[in-house]
């Protein structure tokens, strides 16, 4: 199919998502508990925006380019195995399948067992958009069975995986036998550095929002808030005040900001980390262990803020994947950067401060993307991680290039 026709089909996929935004949002909420207000804007609305951003790339992308006497040709890599997570089921599907289709690839999509219905809805959108039968295929099953089959299959040329770092390592091992390309978007423990010259109220309000979005079940969540030691108590007080507006409850209620965890197993995992933080001596400034009052049924946890957390504490190093924030004091800017980079992960992060000062600090952070003073998230900029947060990039022309091989024809 010519690239222009592929782009037109992708535009129709975007239109199909837009027309079913409410259905997608309700499905995501029912499957994994994302609060409905958030699901409409981010879990369904954002995928529409991402899908819409790819079609315009077709005209300006250098599918062929001259380099001296060589013709450089970008060709589809082939069959793509896309393995997606439960926390952002539609977004991650779109971020993988749409650029793969624009590149000219076919796709075998394996969604999480927690969110199978969202994948089915997406598949229903592709057919009327003009995607031929057999180009997008959905295969259901567990990671150890279907995921490993996809990773090791000789008929699959590339695996694009989003999920835990542990599972990503298994995908890489499975793919090694056929030396296929592997793109990984894995875990994170993102640092939010609040500098002494920051607007503290804005930094804390956005810091809580980015830490607890999707009920904290987000790989790029700002789960470490790094603050000047001299202003630690002041900032904790602001954080506690902001946290009071995050109501926990029924995810179908538009007023709810923190829904249940995706499963009882996830609830137990998050609760275990809260208990570990208490046992290790961190100060509970908000929330804590135990059931949410009035919500004893359901996989709920109490949104929690820990104050005066040691940089090497378990809750400051391991990905919790729930509404748990660690406030970590630092003595000076050099220590703040060192603490931010003291992680096996490097996915997201942020800096708040005087603009030039904050930008200088952002450049010193070893992470795939940094938001300065709450800057708007750019859907055409590359998204991906350093270190054990993965490799490869999604979104925009960088995301498209992931699904292309490069051939040099010398003449």
TrEMBL record:
GO terms for molecular function: aldehyde dehydrogenase (NAD+) activity. Keywords: Oxidoreductase. InterPro entries: Ald_DH/histidinol_DH, Ald_DH_C, Ald_DH_CS_GLU, Ald_DH_N, Aldehyde_DH_dom. CDD domains: ALDH_CddD_SSP0762 (cd07138). The lineage of its organism: Bacteria, Bacillati, Actinomycetota, Actinomycetes, Kitasatosporales. It comes from Streptomyces pseudovenezuelae. The active site is at residue 185. PROSITE patterns: ALDEHYDE_DEHYDR_GLU. Residues 1-409 form the Aldehyde dehydrogenase domain. Its EC number is 1.2.1.3. Belongs to the aldehyde dehydrogenase family. Gene3D superfamilies: Aldehyde Dehydrogenase, Chain A, domain 1, Aldehyde Dehydrogenase, Chain A, domain 2. This is Aldehyde dehydrogenase (NAD+). PANTHER family: ALDEHYDE DEHYDROGENASE, ALDEHYDE DEHYDROGENASE-RELATED. It comes from the Bacteria.
């Amino acid at each position: 199919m010519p690239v222009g026709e592929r782009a037109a089909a992708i535009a129709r996929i975007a239109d199909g998502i837009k027309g079913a935004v409410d259905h997608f949002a309700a499905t995501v909420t029912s499957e994994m508990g994302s609060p409905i207000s958030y699901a409409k804007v981010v879990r369904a609305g954002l995928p529409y925006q991402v899908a819409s951003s790819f079609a315009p790339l077709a005209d300006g992308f250098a599918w062929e380019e001259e380099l001296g006497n060589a013709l450089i040709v970008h060709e589809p890599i082939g069959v793509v195995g896309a393995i997606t997570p439960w926390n952002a089921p539609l977004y991650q599907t779109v971020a993988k399948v749409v650029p793969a289709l624009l590149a000219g690839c076919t796709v075998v999509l394996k969604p999480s067992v927690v969110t199978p219905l969202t994948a089915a809805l997406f598949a229903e959108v592709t057919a009327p958009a003009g995607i031929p039968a057999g180009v997008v295929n959905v295969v259901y099953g567990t990671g150890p069975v279907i995921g490993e089959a996809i990773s090791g299959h000789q008929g699959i040329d590339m695996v694009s995986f989003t999920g835990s770092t542990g599972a990503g390592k298994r995908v890489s091992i499975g793919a090694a036998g056929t030396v296929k390309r592997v793109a990984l978007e894995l875990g994170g423990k993102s640092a939010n550095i609040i500098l002494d010259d920051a607007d503290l109220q804005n930094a804390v309000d956005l810091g809580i929002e980015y830490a607890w979005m999707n009920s904290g079940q987000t790989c790029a969540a700002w789960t470490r808030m790094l603050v000047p030691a001299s202003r630690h108590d002041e900032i904790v007080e602001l954080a506690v005040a902001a946290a009071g507006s995050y109501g926990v409850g029924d995810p179908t209620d538009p007023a709810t900001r923190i829904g249940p965890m995706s499963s009882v197993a996830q609830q137990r995992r998050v609760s275990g980390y809260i208990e570990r933080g208490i046992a290790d001596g961190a100060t509970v400034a908000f929330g804590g262990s135990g059931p949410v009052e009035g919500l004893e049924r359901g996989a709920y946890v109490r949104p929690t803020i820990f104050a005066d957390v040691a940089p090497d504490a378990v809750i400051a190093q391991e990905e919790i994947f729930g509404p748990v924030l660690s406030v970590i004091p630092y003595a000076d800017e050099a220590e703040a950067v060192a603490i931010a980079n003291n992680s096996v992960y490097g996915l997201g992060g942020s800096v708040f401060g005087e603009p030039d000062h904050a930008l200088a600090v952002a450049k010193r952070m070893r992470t795939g993307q940094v938001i300065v003073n709450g800057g708007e998230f750019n859907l055409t900029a590359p998204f991906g991680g350093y270190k054990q947060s993965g490799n490869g990039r999604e979104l925009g022309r960088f995301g498209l290039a992931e699904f292309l091989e490069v051939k040099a024809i010398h003449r």
